[in-house]
User: Fold this.
Amino acid sequence: MTTTQLTTSAPQWLHDMTSPSTAVIQQKSKTPILDPPGFTALQTKQQKSKTPAPVRKQPTPEEMDTLKLKKAWELALGPAKQLPMNAIGMYMTGNSLQIFSIMMVFMLFKGPIGAMFSIQQTFSRLETETNRGQMLLVKAAFVGCNLLALALGIWKVNGMGLLPTTRSDWLAWETARDPLERAYFVPS
Amino acid sequence: MLLPLIAAAFLLAGSGSAVFTDEAWNVDYHYALLGQPKQSTSFFHQPNPSSRASLVYTLSERGVLGAVNPRDGAVVWRQVLLAGASAHNASFLRAGEGQDVVISGIGSQVAAWSAADGRQAWSVDFPGPLEDVEILELVDGKDTSGAKDAVALSGGDQPVVQRLDGATGSVKWQYQLSGTDVPYQVSASTTEVFVISLHKTILGYLKLKVTSLDPVSGHKMDEHMLSSENELATADTIVTVGANSASPINAWTDSTHSVLKVNIMGTKGISSFDIEKHGGEAVERVKLHAPYHINSLSHFLVHYETATSHWAEVFHVDLKRGQVEKAYSLPKLAGRGAFSTSTSDANVYFTRVTSDQVMTVSSASHGVLGKWSVGGFNVAAANDETAEPIHAVSEVSIRGDTVSAVRSAVLLSTGDWVLLRDGSPVWSRPEMLASTVSAAFATPAEVEALVQQLEAEAHSNPIEAYIHRLTRHVQDLQRLPAIIMSLPQKVVQGFLGTSVDGDITSDSFGFHQIIACATQDGRLIALDAGNPDKVLWNQQIADLQPGQTWQPSVSSPKGGVVEISSKASAGVQYNASSGEQLVSILPIDVTADQAAQEVKYAMHDGGLEATVDSSTTWHFMPTSGERIVSLVPRPLNDPVASIGKVLGDRRVLYKYLDPNLALLVTANDAATAATFYVLNTVSGAILYSNVHTGVDLSSPISSMLSENWFTYSFTAEASGDSPKGHQLVVGELFESLVANDRGPLSSTANYSSMQTGTEPFTLTKIYQIPEPISKMAVTRTRQGITSRQLLAVLADSSAIVGIPYGVVDPRRPIGRDPTKDEQAEGLVRYSPVIDFDPRWYLNHQREVVGVKDTITSPALLESTSLVFAYGLDIFGTRLSPSFSFDVLGKDFNKFQMLATVAALAVATCVVAPLVTRKQVNTRWQFM
Assistant:
């Protein structure tokens, strides 16, 4: 309401400023905003639109399949590429039970297991009716790579001595032999 | 807002300085004991003639000479004069008036000791056993300054009287007694030295022969026989002879205690007094109390005792007329009483101590100079027994005509030595514990009762169990007011971190075990290991005649029960908490292993013999010339947590665990060799044996067997290539020395040693130790998870050390550094010499004298083992060989923790509104 009051008494520039929308609507038919002096944008635009853009050829479904397969292979082999880095990291952290190495080992297990559970979701975008057979191989490769990462984790856990692989780990389940006779000393 | 924070910070800083206090002197306790004092060798004496403060000196029944501060009962100094002494050993202790030495005589040695610090001034050995020692209080003017001389009489084949120089101990003169008479006593007056010997008449009666000697030259002056007619059948009815007073007297009675005969020494006259029969009871004992000072009045007191009452008569000696007169008598009182003599200048005072009063009279008249009632002696006794005084020594302080104070050191019938200041007990020393011969730990009966209740609930049907529990809880409610009353105290203690030792009923850590000690004189005494300042109960369980000994063995067959068995009698059981004798003997639970066949073995004809159902199964006979020194079976209750040792590479070395192992030590005196055998006591097989030659068999050989390892120590004589040294041998038995191999029996569930004899593989290591070990024990914990400590009693340095097993581990690598795996196991390179680390000493700087044995018991906490050592001294402590991993130590500051939490809470409360306001403001304020 104040603006309408202003329109009556205020100068034009103030009116334009306070209610730009009305100004734009009024001049919509031509240009939304008054060009600043020396502006030649309209002309260049018209020139560009004149040169025809090269028409991109739509890929055939076969091409699309190979493309998707290629992408899928990339995805599948991704974990394998991380393996050397992980291995070095694991080697560096040492076999002691510290919070840092424990966290790294946890991450090492969490990644591959999580990836294997979400395998359908990962490849659903790339899977089509036609490449389903080939995709099976890709998925197998993906699982294999993740298993490799898991194996690295297990190797690490074993190095830390957390796997019950030795005799001493099962010592608590071994019981002492019971003697069938008991001897008692009778002080005389 | 800042003020509470500053206050909290201040409190934290203050409590921070209290962290890291050592647990020494908190968890351990030590009684420096002397043994029960004798009347004749106890007295008050000023160690420094110029000062008025006096100490109580005694030469106890256990052959320990000591000085006790009468103010607090602490031992000022003590010397063990004769180890292994008993009440039958004659011993003498004299102190000259105004002298700073005390002269002792025990065995065949007379020695002078500085009264202030117990340093020996001199000692003289006699050819025969000592019969008497006296101090010459001569008033001839020559010997008044300097040390007073002593006169000693020794018996044996060549009875001799010697006068010893008081300063150096050199012999001034000696007089050889001739004839077949048995020397009895020596006595000195101001002018003569009297030697009294017992002459046996043809009829078999005894007569007193008095020989008087010149004290300066030692020449015989006179000799006469006292006509004791046919009254003296044995020396037991001689009441007193001599004593070092102005007028030494001889007194004796006939065997029925009906007549008292008194002779003034040096005269031939005998005064005869009829002993009045008070009531119908026979007089059992007659004692004579006379002052020991040469310039005091020649009065004496005769003390008569019947089984239920006692009275006394005071006699005066008229030196001029050579007569003894009865002056007055002290009335008969029920119960036992003790009389003591004290002097002040020439006056003589007699103090009578009974179980309810202390009374002092002058020797001159029967007027009571001071009388105090005794509320109680403040010592533990059995319910039906009242502590009665046996004997006393007193010191009176005289103000004007009355006795202003009297201090009496009283030996009670319970064995406690109590000091009464006037009528109130100031301190008591449990001297009866000094003669402990056997001890055992037992669970308190209250704890056991709860265990039984819980077991009853576990083994009945749910409804019954529920009703049982409900009634139990209703009964528990009766204790609620007491618990509520004690709650504030508990909370305060919890804050201050002093609540580790609760009382015996709320003992969650198992520290409050009862230690039952059986003593040589037939008493059974119970201590609380968690609160050792007090004797729980103390009772006479064996009525021993004088001269009779017994060899009790104390054990705890099940929780809450103490069992005493000795050669003479079968086991008698007592309630561990109250000491009440249990009427029905409970079946012993040790042989709970019903499935197992029982083999019993015992020492027999110098060897071992084992029987199964009364048929002999095996014999073990040492080779000719060898005798069995000791046999240590593996403890019945010896839990082992793990059946194997985990190596550094996580493989397992299996332990050879057999509950039927025993370590037998034999000695060959001719060849000075000691042989050590590990036996399987079921089959009698020797699993391991080793001979050490050149062993000093006179020094102790100690041995110990636990779990799958054994240890022994001995002293090796010097030989051509090695000096004399003390050695500690540790051996460990394994199923196999190959890792992960469980031996031929593999994992079978059970086995019979009779049918399949497996032999262990033994690793041993020998270590050189700086001192001989007289006794060994090992810490025991509830489940055997905690590592072990070998407890070694060092008799020479009066100490007990706890050697960690890792130090003596036989698997320590020889000649090379340990590999990484071995390091992981904690093994270090073998070095043949072990020095006892000062931190291993359990007694810290105290001297634990005369320890005979050490017993251990597991606490409820797995980390902790209770240790108790007895012998002469009593010493106990709690040990955590693997440190206290399951309980917060004293160094944990509960207050600091709570204060931190409180400070954080306060800070949160203070800051929370500030933060809320800020958050609200950020939403509302734009600029």
Q: What stands out?
A: Strands of chain A lie at 178-179, 181-185.
